[in-house]
Amino acid sequence: MRTIREVFVNFKRSGFLSLISIGTIVITIAVLGGYYLINETINHFMNKFQNKVEIVAFLNDNLSNDKIDNLITEIKGFSEVTEVIFVSKMDAYQEFAKDDEMKQILDSFEGNPFPDSIKIRLKNYARQNIEKLVKFFSNKEGVLEVQYGGKDIENFLNIINVIKFITAVAGIIFIIASILVVTSIINLTIYARRQDIYVFRMVGATETYIRAPFIMEGIIHGIIGGAIGWGVIYLIIRIISIQIQKEIGVNLLNFYLFEPHFFTIKFLIGCITSGAVLGLIGSLLSQGRIQGGY
Amino acid sequence: MTEELYEAIMIKFKHVYKIYEKDIKALDDISFEIKSGELVFITGPSGAGKTTILNLLYREDTPAMGTILVNNTDISHLKGSKIAKYRRSIGFVFQDFKLLFDRCVFDNIALPLEIIKANTQYIKNAVMEYIKKIGLLGKEKLNPWHLSGGEKQKVAIARALITSPSIILADEPTGNLDDFSAWEIITMLTDANKKGATVVIATHNKEIISRVGGKVIKLDKGRIV
Predict the structure, then answer these.
(1) Does A207 reach chain B within 8 Å, measured CB to CB?
(2) How many helices (H) and strands (E) does chain A have?
(3) Higher pLDDT, B159 or B80
(4) CATH class of the A54-147 domain in this structure
(5) What was the ipTM of the complex prediction?
(6) Cβ within 8 Å of B, A 2-41
(7) What is this structure's pTM?
(8) Which of A15, A104, A142, B4 has most Cβ atoms within 10 angstroms of its Cβ?
(9) Chain A residues with beta carbon closer than 8 angstroms to that of B88
(10) What distance in Å separates the CA atoms of residue A261 and residue A235, rounded to the nearest whole number?
(11) CA–CA distance, B11 with B106 (Å, rounded to integer)
């Protein structure tokens, strides 16, 4: 109770400085929250894609069944592969012919234009796994062409990864900046209250008694900053989702990441906790100032 | 005071030196004894070493050489929380009051009791009793800014006495006060002494010393003269 009262005394004395400290934590939490959301979005999409990514190897018409079987056996030997399906040219034709429009196009060809093919499904979407298999097929006799549907996704993910990297760097910079700002501001508060600290010491206060309010001050700045930071992210997401819904009719709030229960409870707790930790680190770093002997 | 109370030695300085930068000797081979329940004046011109002795007694500083015993404990070797506990047995009165100006009169006096985590009801009763004694009833919720110099010092003395410490140190307690207020303050200190506290007052006010009497330690340039 006394600690909280002292925190309010400090806030009253150096309200503007406290606002700067809280403001820095707000920015940091907003950047870190943004990073978290981008990261979660990427992971979410990666999980969705990785089961659907497949490599297709088109084969020469004159490849014997034995050679095809050997090829399938070799592919199954790769630990990254989960499923290998042989699609004969007839199967491919029948599959496409199910669609009336495609049937008309296929009828314009003489015979069956499709080659035999092998579809390979991978355990996860990793560039090195794909490259390894593409290289393997390219050197194989009887393989016409190798295709995989991940190129566009990969380009998209490359852009996302750049954004992720920039956000991570900005996040680290803001973490350091906010810790430094909290430390400096609590140092200033300690300086402003040096006579009070002296009086506390002279009447027999322990170090814990003297330091606790300053540590609590950092934590409270962090909690307030974390909550406002969450508010800032929430507001930005709401504005963006309203704009997106207006432009393309997709409601972002239907996505699991932006579902109200996730975004309001879990995320709010996460932001507040992160803010409190930042404030705690900042205030602990400032404690040397008291040791300095005011 | 009775002879029995004088028997035990409360404070003992044995060949104490305090040297600041560039070989400036603030205290030069100081030795003296103060018995329990004694009233002692430390006097001398500015820079004689009066405040240095009180700072050493308060364990704000340590001597360069020599031993300081308080109640048979060598206070120079106290560390950490033991210093805090030691200070709780001492009441200190400063010339510039050293009050907390964002707290009211009541809270300033209550501070030492708050630190030792005394019962809230006990704090309320004890503080109000002292406020009555020092004649500030009705001003307990006022900020010290609204008090006169004499009233501020009364609050500071009430804060020093509230835990009934065995030793009271006062550094020029009347330095900033008019004669009437100064005498009120000295009376409060001598009253505490009559109740058994060992009182050490650093002052250069010869009139007060001659009116009150008691033991006098006279300093000049860091030496006892």
Answers:
(1) yes
(2) 12, 4
(3) B159
(4) alpha beta
(5) 0.85
(6) 2, 9, 12-13
(7) 0.68
(8) A142
(9) 203-204
(10) 16
(11) 32
